[in-house]
């Protein structure tokens, strides 16, 4: 015959389980707005009797109550991994979109302050000089020099803006590397705490939440992913390289050139391990920034330099074919130079950052197509000014090249913006799926709270019923017939 007092133990476990459920529900409700918090659930398990009965004792055939010692953290490993991947992709595309928007702002197109407008003013001034009734008149010639100077200044400004953007981006990568080092160190520390707590039988759910939130942040920063390890720890990998292994962390640093002019020489900016110097295949924000440093900005910087080089070469070539006001050949005084003040010998040394107008006196513009009969006599011919204007009509000329550059920039920026918008939708859907599993639903928690509350009341009522039965058994049995 089983002991009647065993019912009290069953009721006690029921009370404890209900109290535990209420505590967990309260924890969930308290952290409904906590970033990175995962919903917790108390696991109720029926406790059976012993398999080997003791002498003169028989276990209760209906079990020994309920066990509520285990509290699970509700997570979906697949969605966690997917969230890391999509977070990294979203961050990388956001960087690309922002970088291209800054490049568009540097070129200032379309607009009155853009290079396109400045080129138009140059060709208009040459056209006005060619159609002037007196091509030797200083006003039209001064307008040509002024428009050329504005164009050269505009190119230098655009180039300086691109260089400044490149340097700022590299500084951001350096700051990001320091942030990564702090994050991986924190993840390693939390791994160690989780291992110690697991071995001691202490709860680790909140520690794991903090760690996983840091891993997700690291995914957005450098494209990190995590792999489960022993004792509740995780290993963190970036591009196949392990940055966090248990309680050990590996740092990162920025390597490569720090001058945009030397990009492409085989030592482009990159993130490497510290120590070790192993190049990391990063994603996320760092991946986007490194792409901007090694590809996006250098490409547009190079295209602008090529445009400046082409402009100087063609203007100087036309200048050399004509004659100035005094009848001297324009070959003696090139119209543009590389900013050194010397005639351009090697066009490869010309770039948008140094382009300038060499001719400072209006009369030195070689607007005449034919030389005067007597050297020193004015050249009233404006035929060579027409040749300057015709540069704007060339197939594959400066104008066509710049139009193609602006169109390519607009298309690339548009595609990047569209890709980023699509990726944000995907990332939002993945986050919503993760929240549906791990997030706290107040309606569900309220239902659980009522359920545990009623279970607690029922268990308490069972204690009262058993107490009354024992009172009858102990205090009233054997009184009949006395």
From TrEMBL:
Q: Where in the cell is it found?
A: Bacterial flagellum; Secreted
Provide the GO MF annotations for this entry: structural molecule activity
Q: Where is the Flagellar basal body rod protein N-terminal domain?
A: 8-37
Q: Which InterPro entries match?
A: Flag_bb_rod_N, Flg_bb/hook_C_dom, FlgK, FlgK_helical
Cellular component terms (Gene Ontology): bacterial-type flagellum hook; extracellular region
- Top-level taxon in the UniProt lineage: Bacteria
Q: Where is the Flagellar hook-associated protein FlgK helical domain?
A: 100-331
Return one Gene Ontology term, BP aspect. Answer: bacterial-type flagellum assembly
Q: Which residues form the Flagellar basal-body/hook protein C-terminal domain?
A: 437-475
Secreted found in the keyword field? yes
Pfam families per record: Flg_bb_rod, Flg_bbr_C, FlgK_D1
Does the keyword Lyase belong to this entry?
A: no
Arranged from A to Z, the UniProt key words for this protein are:
Bacterial flagellum, Cell projection, Cilium, Flagellum, Secreted
Family recorded in the similarity comment:
Belongs to the flagella basal body rod proteins family.
Q: What is this protein called?
A: Flagellar hook-associated protein 1
Q: What is the native source organism of this protein?
A: Geodermatophilus africanus
